[in-house]
Specification:
about 300 residues, globular, 14 helices, about 75% helix
Length: about 300
């Protein structure tokens, strides 16, 4: 949707002409650049999030981007700095004070989320005016992404991927079997802390495209889709990136040619991919049931 037009531009099915027209606007070029960076980083980090079953922590880190952005606007600085500051701070708190079990981590994560969301509400109340784009903060936009923001996203994304490449193999080992990894002197707790910091940085970047409430569209859905289709790490990572890029580019294109929000389209395309990934397993299950002989007898039980 063009910022100055009441009606969205029309899709002509002349693909070359349509894309040339769309990319004639600098804000759309920046949107595709930022979306590509965010899609790649989110997919790779998200693959480990799903593998480590830390979706709740990822959800908390994404929601606290809202008070981060609100606090930054209240202080008179750019919302992007608030995104990164509070997302990384929340990830550090969860990483440092988490207990040894899943129950302790969930309790701490929920407590951090509740407190920081309350702080966000306070920041909005203290701001004596109309907070710039609360809907944008929550649900994302592609309008107004500057070249400076793209550069910041590129630098942060490159740093996140460099660290992830460095710790990738031990992190994979610690994620799949933490007890054996610890027995072999792999620094499981240090890797967990480092990964949560990477998660905070990646989430802050994704929040600028999808909004704080729809980060899962790029952080979890592509990775979950890939892990439904393959258990091989390399293929899964590549597939997650492919799904994330497809959802982002299709969402940006659909949002440009319609009056509806970007977050809805990105999430819908990613969700459609997830549903398609469930089809092969459902068909295999149905095929297995139809091939099962109908004896009319109860299943045999193990006799020991």
């Amino acid at each position: 949707m063009l910022p100055t037009d009441a009606a969205a531009p029309a899709w002509s099915w002349n693909l070359i002409g349509d894309f040339q027209q769309m990319w004639s606007y600098p804000f759309m070029v920046n949107a595709f650049r930022a979306g590509t960076i965010v899609a790649v980083v989110s997919a790779l980090v998200g693959w480990f999030v799903v593998l480590r079953r830390q979706s709740f922590a990822a959800h908390t880190v994404s929601t606290v981007a809202f008070p981060g952005a609100a606090g930054a606007v209240l202080l008179g600085v750019g919302a992007v700095y608030g995104y990164f500051a509070l997302c990384i701070a929340a990830a550090l708190v969860i990483a440092v004070f988490r207990g040894g079990g899943d129950r302790e981590e969930s309790a701490l994560t929920g407590t951090v989320q509740a407190f920081l969301l309350a702080c966000g509400y306070l920041f909005v109340a203290l701001y004596k005016g109309l907070l710039e784009g609360p809907q944008t903060i929550l649900f994302g936009t592609f309008l107004g992404i500057t070249t400076t923001q793209v550069t910041v996203l590129l630098c942060v994304g490159a740093a996140v991927l460099a660290v992830l490449a460095l710790i990738g193999r031990p992190l994979l080992f610690a994620s799949t079997d933490p007890r054996v990894a610890a027995a072999r002197r792999v620094p499981v707790r240090g890797l967990s802390l480092a990964f949560l910091v990477l998660l905070g940085a990646a989430t802050a970047g994704a929040s600028q495209i999808t909004g704080t409430l729809l980060v899962f569209a790029l952080m979890v859905i592509p990775a979950a889709t890939a892990q439904h289709l393959t258990a091989r790490p390399a293929a899964g990572l590549a597939l997650a990136v492919l799904v994330s890029l497809t959802a982002t580019w299709a969402g940006l294109t659909a949002a440009y040619y319609s009056p509806y929000p970007l977050g809805f389209f990105v999430t819908s395309f990613a969700f459609a991919g997830y549903l398609l990934a469930l089809v092969p397993r459902a068909l295999l299950g149905l095929r297995g049931r139809t091939r099962r002989p109908r004896t009319g007898l109860p299943p045999l039980e193990a006799t020991g």
